[in-house]
Amino acid sequence: MDGNGRWAEKRGLPRKFGHREGAKTFKKIVRYCKKIGIKYASFFAFSTENWKRPKEEVDAIIELFEQYIDDVRSHVDEEVRVIFLGDKSVFSSELQKKMVSLEEDSKEFDKMTLLLAINYGGKDDIVHSVKQIAKLVREGTINPEQIDEGLVSSFLYTKGLPDVDFIIRPSGEQRISNFLIWQSAYAEFYFTDVLWPDFSERELDKALLDYASRGRRFGGI
Known about the structure:
two-stranded parallel ribbon; 14% strand
């Protein structure tokens, strides 16, 4: 969800105002994804690298994130499963409890699965998996020869979920920015100059039509 800060700066506003508008767009697009039948939708909210940003901006993002969790609580009738990707341990104990509680209370919902990456990094995700596997090898539970793609995937934050089909990158940037690196091995990519606060249902439709026109061969013919 890129371009919030630039959206605000173009209007002479503090960057945190862009994140507020971006949060509104996020809620709108999540509901639209559910409406049109998308079963899994992943959103990159805050990366492991974003801690380098000014404290005021980081605090504003975390505050919006906490408000979103409270908002989801008040709309449980939408029956959307919520999963948080990333290392929760860096957040306050209260926020961690809210995240774990929401994941637990929504785990049986099947209308749509919403994956929200917060303090997430693709490289960190793979390192986390490798460390867990290394422990099993050290304990003698498995042999190194047993390590395969399935085992690595089983220790990622996305355990048990399908790989990524399609990545949309707004704001004119043309890179993956450390998002779901392993899971996106065969993902299709779509780049647009639209800043995230201006991203609309119509823009999502344009992206999905483009995706529908592509041939996915997964290394075959």
